[in-house]
Write a structure and sequence with these properties.
The structure holds 3 protein chains of 3 kinds. Chain A is of the alpha/beta class. Chain A contains 7 helices and 6 strands; from the N terminus they run βαβαβααβαββαα. Chain A is 29% helix and 16% strand. Chain A is elongated and about 70 Å long. Chain A starts with a strand and ends in a 23-residue tail after the last helix. Classes of the chains: A alpha/beta, B alpha/beta, C alpha/beta. Chain A: Pfam families: DUF5981.
């Protein structure tokens, strides 16, 4: 799932040229869209630049719903030189596709959070590798629990059970080993054949 | 509708191998997300069981769960579900569901399915537009076409040499992303920008574990704070929270409906032509769950006839009084004594006699609540005012703090509760400070500060947060030893005892983005909503919806010629939102936010099919109609409407 | 010459590590190798963008050393190249006459001087060892036959005997051996008891292990490693030893003494020693002398 952060103030200010319309997407506000920050910033922007309309709606990634919500703003949008969009990457692309002849700019950077649906991100993530390794690892995903996505066991970088990449993160393979130990399934760690990833979409029929 | 679900059953050969040395299986299948709601029978579960049985395996049990990866709900669902003799659990779901199960159980959990590779992350609606969430959005340099997603190689500095006829060398069905970008920029006259731009290098540290895990932690904490689910709508309280309470100018006449409370409508005891005084009883309670009603002005009864009701929109019996402008008090309006000298039963009698009902919106007769058949350990006052826009209760806390505390003490005595709590959301810190100071010396009254999350003010959510208890399905607060009341109700109880004043006036917030002059007013029951709106400068614009109540649970008014009721806590004018419902896409967001932990997506389906048994099985009657599901629904389905249809049918015994 | 031959004939195999510069002037490196290492260690590891800091390639540097009459060990990590490039570089090594490999997963990109780079890790140490073995058998890992005579190498890998997850490390070691690993060099050891205990478990795999040593230059370095480097732990007594005589430590003498002592205490349990001098190549002869290890006859 997606989450957004505002780009820097200077970056956004540079984009607001001429008559500017702002489109805020609050469909994802439950995922901590920086609403108050955006609001305060937009007020400032309105004072310094020619902001002709601020439109707040939700799920702008849904093109049909978007068209419906923007109907009453047609004139203002047509007259605008620039459209600034505060939303995730999907929303901005949707707006840009709707107004192909206009300068449509993104005011946010989008980041991933674990979880596919719903509003609450999860503590576990799925690497969508298409060749699920969970059966050999006691249910802990090596693709996402290991920073390097290793599938043949721990590298030499773990210290006190923490990953060399981020000391706040547990070494995924240490977790797997301990879980297998608990389940009395350490045999799973015995080497049969080396595991090698198939990056060429193993689920393609 | 395309199927965006994430998993497929593993191939038989692989399953045979995994099953080989395992027996006594419990099978869990996740009802897929992001696909049509219609088909419930997911083929995978059955297919898997067939394969296992072929091998002579013993299947101990199975379960089909919605949104397996929703950890709190799944954890609850599995508390006693898996029998003791199960040795291995097979899960048919995407990797998230399997890992969730593996994290919950002590016995081995195996994957019966593979997660299908899906590029990028699709948005909240079903859309083919993707975002790779790179954390360094390039869309500004490309005219809105993403080079990371639309270019197979995710190149950032222009086309490679592989495009042929505008198609990508990797997939001939796919347009070359950089060709699309070039065309778009050309159309916008921005080609020079493309030529002038500096060399782009991707920063792969933007998305790192620390960033992601901190975010996840903070979102999950806020999401599960106090009680499961809930939402954070924009509050707009700054429009009126600083405006002090003002007495609304006396109305020329008042229309007082007989139905302003839960239970049987009151019966008039006056007739046309009668002179009445302010505070005089003009209608009597019709049964145990009912309430008396009193005149809010002094004057003449000019009509006892059906008038338009703000909640039902239909005409129902009302008493119309023409005011004489004098506000002459009735003899019955005199102090009754004080808490110490009155007995519990006497207090309850005063509360009943003075027509006090729940002023938070539900209008339940307070006397009936106080005379609880079960022992009460806590009287909880709701000072959360969790609906956006409304600020009247906030002002009551600031301006009538002493009365609120007095009312609480009276309710504690009446119900026998040894403890009292006033719960205030943390968006009202001035009220918190004041109430904490005022109750500092009162040992058995505590102020609890709750993190702002709608619908914190709902009684079951309050009980969860303050007492840590869950009211059983179909139950009431008294089942866990609590009585929950609104702060305005407490003030009304205080007025009834200390002044002898019945409930004839209440606080109301008149506000909203489209109200010209917001304010907080003390209004006489029966005052015309239209008059109040006019007084507040009327509404701005044409696309305005006026609601009585708050934006989440308020009642939209087609006609403003309706009266203020005892339980009307707000009049708001907001922009009309036009919505077009589409099919449910099983995104799971409704289940994520429902504070009663229900499955709203089934309500919509069952209501359309008139499957009332199904709705009952899904505990529709537990729904508090808070509107969280409807607010978050990506398909814009009017879920609450459908719930109400179902509830009506169930009540009618269908 | 493949160093496996040395192990096979019972030699106590000595190796040291050199790191290429971030540039193309190798004179200093070659001079030090001739002066201090040629007659004291059998072979020289050449690191591969060690600690994710971009440097001149290990393969090219190995060839330069070979031309100088030295015996290089080509270190290969999986951080920077995918399986196509890795197999290609292995064949290139064979082409250039390099027969000794040390196959590692590699440090993560964020640890070095190009933190924003895209980490690859298409293969890891185990699958890389397997890939080399397959090439020796005449096939790449996609199953295609190699043209002509297949290459042959001495395949080595790393293990951390003093790791706080030593059981997990042993499991990985077993996997590496099964994939075809023929010798091991350990991460820096400072605790002989742990090494000895580890070797009791590891000897079941029947594969030679070289004791890895990192010269403890000063107290600051030890504290840094204790806090940040996985699998390395300098005990308090040793830090105290370094602190005791500041002049001696500054001169490098304490560090040298400590290394020599560690070799003496552990050598009966190991099949060789690998010294990571971190720029102090000139002290290696002294360490070996103090440990009672005589100079060797260069094998090349």
């Amino acid at each position: 799932m997606l989450i957004t952060q505002l780009k820097s103030q200077e970056a956004i200010e540079a984009l607001a040229q001429g008559k500017t319309v702002i489109i805020n997407c609050h469909g994802c506000k439950e995922v901590y869209f920086a609403e108050h920050e955006a609001d305060a910033f937009q007020k400032e922007l309105s004072a310094n630049k020619e902001v002709t309309q601020i439109i707040t709606t939700d799920y702008i990634c849904n093109p049909d719903n978007l068209k419906l919500q923007l109907k009453k703003h047609t004139d203002v949008i047509n007259a605008a030189d620039t459209i600034l969009v505060f939303s995730c990457g999907v929303g901005i692309q949707t707006v840009a596709a709707l107004f192909e002849g206009k300068k449509v700019y993104s005011c946010c950077d989008t980041y991933p959070l674990p979880g596919f649906q719903g509003v609450t991100p999860l503590n576990v993530d799925c690497g969508q590798c298409g060749e699920c390794y969970l059966n050999g690892t006691g249910g802990i995903c090596p693709i996402t629990a290991c920073s390097k996505s290793l599938i043949n066991g721990q590298c030499g970088g773990a210290k006190e059970g923490k990953c060399e990449v981020d000391k706040n993160m547990e070494c995924g393979w240490e977790r797997i080993y301990r879980k297998l130990e608990k389940l009395d399934k350490l045999d799973n760690m015995k080497y049969d054949a080396p595991k090698v990833r198939n990056y060429n979409n193993p689920n393609a029929e | 509708m395309e199927d965006y679900t994430k998993f497929k059953l593993k191939r038989k050969e692989e399953l045979d191998a995994v099953l080989a040395d395992k027996n006594d299986l419990f099978v869990v299948a996740c009802n897929k997300c992001f696909k049509e709601l219609d088909s419930f029978d997911e083929p995978e579960c059955g297919l898997f069981e067939e394969i296992a049985k072929e091998q002579g395996k013993n299947i101990v049990g199975s379960a089909q769960i919605d949104f397996l990866c929703n950890e709190p709900l799944t954890s609850k669902a599995f508390q006693d579900l898996i029998p003791q003799d199960a040795k291995n659990v097979f899960v048919i779901s995407c990797g998230l569901g399997i890992q969730t199960m593996a994290g919950l159980l002590d016995i081995p959990v195996y994957a019966g399915s593979d997660t299908v590779t899906v590029d990028g992350y699709h948005g909240m609606a079903l859309t083919t537009t993707l975002c790779e969430a790179c954390g360094q959005c390039y869309l500004n340099m490309t005219g809105g076409i993403c080079p990371v997603v639309d270019c197979s190689k995710s190149l950032l500095n222009g086309q490679c040499g592989g495009a042929k006829n505008g198609k990508c060398e990797v997939d001939k069905e796919m347009d070359c992303g950089w060709q699309l970008i070039y065309d778009r920029l050309e159309k916008q006259g921005r080609l020079q920008e493309l030529l002038d731009k500096p060399v782009e290098l991707r920063d792969y540290t933007k998305v790192n574990h620390k960033f992601v895990s901190e975010y996840v932690k903070s979102v999950r904490e806020e999401r599960y704070e106090g009680y499961y689910g809930g939402i954070h709508p924009t509050e707009f309280k700054e429009l009126s929270e600083h405006i002090g309470l003002v007495a609304f100018p006396d109305p020329v006449n008042v229309v007082i409906p007989m139905s302003q409370h839960a239970g049987a409508p009151a019966e008039p005891i006056v007739k046309v032509g009668d002179q009445v005084k302010m505070g005089q009883k003009i209608a009597q309670a019709a049964g145990v769950v009912s309430s008396a009603i009193h005149a809010s002005v002094s004057g003449t009864v000019v009509a006892v006839e059906p008038r338009r009701h703000p909640v039902s929109g239909l005409d129902s019996l009302a008493i119309v009084i023409q005011s004489d402008g004098k506000n002459t008090l009735d003899e019955s309006v005199k102090p009754a004594g004080d808490i110490d000298s009155l007995s519990a039963d006497e207090i309850i009698e005063i509360v009943r006699e003075k027509g006090i009902v729940g002023m938070g919106g539900a209008g339940f007769p307070t006397a009936v609540k106080l005379k609880s058949p079960k022992p009460i350990e806590l009287v909880l006052l709701n000072a959360c005012e969790c609906e956006p826009i409304l600020t009247a209760d906030h002002r009551v806390l600031l301006e009538y703090a002493d009365e609120v505390i007095y009312g609480l003490k009276a309710m504690m005595k009446a119900s026998g509760a040894p403890k009292g709590v006033i719960a205030i959301e943390d968006n009202k810190l001035d009220a918190v400070e004041l109430m904490q100071a005022k109750t500092a010396d009162i040992e058995n009254i505590e102020i609890v500060v709750a993190k702002t999350k709608y619908p914190q003010g709902a009684e079951k959510m309050l009980i969860k947060r303050v007492m840590g208890k869950q009211v059983p399905s179909g139950g009431l607060p008294m089942d866990v030893g609590a009585i929950v009341c609104n702060v305005s109700t407490a003030k009304a109880v205080s007025d009834a005892i200390q002044l002898g004043m019945p409930l004839i006036e209440r606080v109301v917030t008149v506000s909203g983005n489209r109200m010209n002059k917001p304010g907080n007013y003390l209004v006489k029951i029966g005052t015309s909503v239209k008059d109040i709106v006019n007084h507040c400068g009327d509404v701005k614009g044409d696309d305005v919806t006026v609601k009585i109540g708050g934006p989440m649970m308020g009642f939209a008014q087609a006609d403003l010629n309706v009266p203020m009721l005892k339980c009307s806590n707000g009049i708001i004018a907001v922009e009309t939102i036009v919505k077009e419902a589409v099919e449910c896409i099983k995104c799971g967001r409704c289940m994520d936010v429902c504070p009663m932990e229900l499955r709203p997506l089934y309500f919509t389906k069952f209501a359309l099919e008139e499957n009332w048994e199904g709705m009952k099985a899904q505990n529709t009657m537990d729904c508090i109609e808070c509107g969280c599901c409807e607010y978050i629904c990506s398909s814009k389905i009017p879920i609450v409407e459908r719930i109400k249809i179902g509830k009506t049918a169930i009540r009618e015994g269908k | 010459m493949r160093i496996t031959e040395l192990f096979e004939r019972g030699e106590f195999v000595l190796t040291a590590e050199v790191g290429p510069p971030k540039g193309v002037e190798l004179d200093h490196l070659i001079k030090d190798a001739h002066e201090y290492l040629k007659t004291r260690v059998h072979a020289l590891n050449v690191t591969d963008n060690q600690s994710s800091v971009m440097r001149t390639g290990s393969l090219a540097t190995c060839r330069v050393l070979k031309d100088e009459g030295l015996l290089p060990i080509f270190q290969v990590t999986c951080r920077d190249r995918n399986r196509i490039a890795l197999q290609s570089d292995i064949l290139s090594a064979a082409l250039l006459g390099i027969e000794n490999l040390l196959l590692l997963t590699g440090d993560y990109t964020t640890l070095g001087d190009h933190p924003q780079a895209k980490p690859v890790f298409d293969l890891d140490s185990v699958s890389l060892i397997h890939a080399v073995k397959r090439l020796e058998e005449g096939f790449d890992i996609a199953g295609n036959a190699v043209d002509g005579a297949p290459p042959k190498f001495a395949k080595g890998a790393v293990v951390s005997p003093c790791s706080d997850s030593v059981d997990v490390q042993l499991a990985k070691m077993e996997a590496k051996v099964k994939a075809g690993c023929e010798y091991f060099q350990t991460q820096g050891v400072y605790e002989p008891e742990k090494f000895i205990k580890f070797m009791e478990q590891a000897k079941q795999f029947g594969v030679p292990v070289q004791l890895g040593l990192i010269i403890p230059k000063n107290v600051g370095m030890c504290r840094y490693m204790n806090a940040n480097v996985a699998g390395v732990h300098v005990p308090d007594e040793m830090i105290a030893e370094l602190q005791a005589d500041k002049e001696k430590t500054k001169a490098g003498d304490t560090g040298v003494e400590i290394c020599a002592r560690l070799i003496r205490e552990c050598k009966d349990y190991a099949q060789g020693v690998h010294i990571m001098s971190l720029g102090w190549e000139n002290r290696i002869p002294e360490i070996l002398d103090l440990a009672g290890i005589a100079p060797i006859t260069p094998v090349v």
